[in-house]
Amino acid sequence: MNRQAQAVILFLFGGAVLKASLGDLYLRYVKEGLRPFLIAAGLALVAAAVMTLWYEFRKPAASGAASSGADSAEGDGEHGGDEHADDHGHAHHEPRVGWLLILPVLGLLLVAPPALGSYTAGQSGTVQVSADSDYAPLPEGDPVRVSLLDYASRVIYDEGRSVTGRRLALTGFVTTGPEGVMLARIVVSCCAADGRPIKVGLDGGPVVDVPAGTWLEVTGRLSAKRGKDPVNQADIAYLEVEQWKPVAAPKQQYE
């Protein structure tokens, strides 16, 4: 692989990063706040590729002009001309394994993997929610929309005091557990590589009979039921279901 090929792959990789970050595809890999850094990285890669190509295409003309005087001084000796070609005329090629760098480029350009979902939730234990020293009152609204992570934290560490008596709307995808259907979302700190599910059990109400991975908006109230995740024995909060309905997957699927 020569310098020109390296620059082309670098250009394609930078373009793929820009294509993902200027749309919504990047949300399947990282959190929304990292978008400016992805755009900056993509622009830097494209700029480096363009500068490399400019330098490589400019170099032959410059080297040809510089060597014209040297060629005339050496004369027409066959042996001298061969030595010059051997010493300076042979291009240095990088190992062919470098072509494997094109695989992640093709992956970004041609493949759009789905966000982590029900399979990941079924194989991983629920997030160990952290305690907050002060749970602020819920905003006005009926029902009030609450994230799964916030609901689980309020129920497990605040004993549900801040959600008691309120109708709540939770959105997530369906996953199955040992005690029935649960609602889940993937929580990420930085990117999908560290994603872990947060699970909330569904108790009572109309039976949720949809395939795993279906996104639902579930309305209900605090349930006194608690459970344990069989994967990591973490506590699981439950919601007493009043109604549910399928919804489209949100643009930002991670919490």
TrEMBL record:
InterPro entries: DUF1980, DUF1980_C, UPF0703_membrane_permease. Residues 76-91 have a biased composition (Basic and acidic residues). Pfam families: DUF1980_C. The keyword Protein biosynthesis does not apply. The chain crosses the membrane at residues 33-55, 97-116. It comes from the Bacteria. Residues 155-254 form the DUF1980 domain. This is Membrane protein. The lineage of its organism: Bacteria, Bacillati, Actinomycetota, Actinomycetes, Micromonosporales.
